[in-house]
């Protein structure tokens, strides 16, 4: 009951804003009419319900902006109605004011815990009702602004997810294309063998390994690391894969045709010079790359090497001794008109030569330090020397993953080329 309630002193249309539709719930028809008449004068659309059950049916059909509900009603009381309303899934929030004669703190706490937003103690004064509705409007306005912003954020995230999925799909395809540049991970050349390892730190990477042979007893193999990461570096590796093609010798800058009959391997220092000139001539390209490139005569074991800023190749002698070889050199595409020099060495039966990218030696360990050259030697010593080349590289990579930082993971592409010399 709402005795002595007066609302006629409020001007029509004085209250406008986020609240438009108001549901009045009371088992007393008189009290509903008193409230409804005044709310309509204030410019609200008013709906009435004589019970909590009827109110729930109305809310399920269309959620009101504001609910004024008596607490004490037969059947479903105001508190139970509020609890049922809050369990109902809805995109719109209803501001709920309980009308009650209860004033004890524990009872008010019970109402708030059940989902009520505010209370009005009977008898209700017009000024207090106006103030509570105004407060409700501010809260609803903020809630709906937040809801709208959340919707925008959600839609933006959905759009970003669609864009990401499209990019991810493209990158997966790009990875397949990049993998096609290395069609074979292991190949025998007579009794000798070349094995390759390529593990990009992302979908695609900037490392490239490969091998080619223009004829019997002649072999070239390399390890390349393009500066940077991601798509730009991967595009450069695709280009270099064409320059050092194992299938199209006429496009391979490391070969030259002689007597219009057969292809021969150019000197490694000349190959580095040619690649450097091509990159320098391409304006707008800021990428450069490091390279270790070798050619070997499989009959004599004579190996010629050019090192262009790449990590020092590791020579693994059959007798168990190890040696880092090479003089460093300047990366390809960094300085114009640079000259490169090559080194020569003779391999003995059973010797191996490991070319690798700095993704191995600069891998971060659990203690925060890099693996470095000594760490690489330790990894090599842990590998079974009786394994095939591919198995050796797989074990080398596995050993690396076991000691590198789990927090940072693989921060750079990892690649390697292993040549095993066995003369026929």
What percent of the residues sit in helical stretches (DSSP H or I)? Answer: 25-40%
Write down the CATH class of the largest domain: Alpha Beta
CATH architecture of the largest domain, by name, is 4-Layer Sandwich
Determine the N-to-C terminus distance: 108 Å
How many β strands by DSSP?
18
User: Nearest-angstrom radius of gyration?
Assistant: 39 Å
CATH fold naming of the largest domain: Phosphatase 2c, domain 1
Structural class: alpha+beta
- Main sheet specs: 6 strands, antiparallel
Biggest sheet, spatial arrangement of strands? 6-7-18-17-14-15
Modified residues (4-aspartylphosphate): 70
Protein name: Serine phosphatase RsbU, regulator of sigma subunit
InterPro entries: Bact_Sigma-Reg, CheY-like_superfamily, PPM-type-like_dom_sf, PPM-type_phosphatase-like_dom, Sig_transdc_resp-reg_receiver
GO biological process, one term: phosphorelay signal transduction system
Can I get a quick summary?
InterPro entries: Bact_Sigma-Reg (IPR052016), CheY-like_superfamily (IPR011006), PPM-type-like_dom_sf (IPR036457), PPM-type_phosphatase-like_dom (IPR001932), Sig_transdc_resp-reg_receiver (IPR001789). With 424 residues, this protein is an alpha+beta fold.
């Amino acid at each position: 009951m709402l005795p002595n309630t007066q609302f006629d002193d409020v001007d029509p249309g004085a209250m406008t804003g986020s609240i438009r539709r108001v549901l009045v719930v009371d088992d007393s028809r008189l009290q509903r009419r008193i409230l409804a008449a005044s709310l309509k004068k204030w410019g609200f659309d008013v709906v009435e319900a004589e019970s909590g059950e009827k109110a729930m049916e109305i809310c399920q059909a269309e959620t009101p902006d504001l609910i004024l509900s008596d607490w004490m009603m037969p059947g479903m009381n105001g508190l139970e109605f509020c609890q049922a309303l809050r369990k109902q899934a809805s995109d719109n929030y209803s501001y709920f004011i309980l009308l009650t004669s209860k004033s004890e703190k524990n009872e008010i706490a019970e109402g708030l815990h059940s989902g009520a937003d505010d209370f009005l103690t009977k008898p209700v004064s017009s000024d207090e009702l106006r103030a509570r509705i105004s407060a409700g409007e501010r809260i609803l306005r903020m809630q709906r602004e937040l809801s709208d912003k959340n919707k925008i954020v959600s839609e933006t995230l959905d759009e970003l997810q669609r864009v990401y999925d499209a990019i991810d799909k493209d990158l997966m395809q790009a990875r397949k294309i990049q993998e096609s540049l290395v069609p074979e991970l292991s190949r025998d050349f007579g009794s000798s063998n070349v094995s390759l390892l390529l593990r990009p730190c992302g979908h695609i990477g900037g490392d490239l390994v490969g091998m080619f042979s223009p004829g019997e007893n002649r072999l070239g193999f390399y390890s390349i690391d393009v500066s940077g990461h991601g798509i730009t570096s991967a595009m450069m590796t695709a280009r270099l894969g064409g320059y050092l093609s194992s299938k199209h010798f006429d496009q391979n800058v490391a070969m030259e045709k002689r007597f219009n009959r057969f292809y021969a391997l150019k000197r490694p220092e000349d190959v580095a010079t040619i690649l450097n000139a091509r990159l320098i001539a391409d304006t707008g390209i800021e990428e450069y790359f490091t390279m270790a490139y070798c050619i070997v005569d499989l009959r004599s074991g004579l190996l010629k090497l050019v090192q262009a800023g790449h990590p020092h190749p590791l020579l693994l002698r059959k007798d168990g001794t190890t040696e880092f070889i090479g003089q460093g050199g300047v990366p390809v595409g960094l300085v114009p008109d640079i000259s490169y020099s090559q080194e020569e060495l003779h391999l003995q039966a059973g010797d191996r030569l490991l070319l690798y990218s700095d993704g191995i030696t600069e891998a971060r360990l659990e203690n925060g330090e890099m693996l470095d050259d000594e760490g690489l030697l330790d990894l090599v010593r842990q590998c079974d020397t009786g394994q095939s080349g591919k198995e050796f590289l797989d074990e080398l990579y596995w050993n690396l993953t076991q000691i590198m930082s789990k927090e940072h993971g693989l921060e750079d592409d990892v690649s390697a080329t292993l040549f095993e010399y066995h003369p026929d």
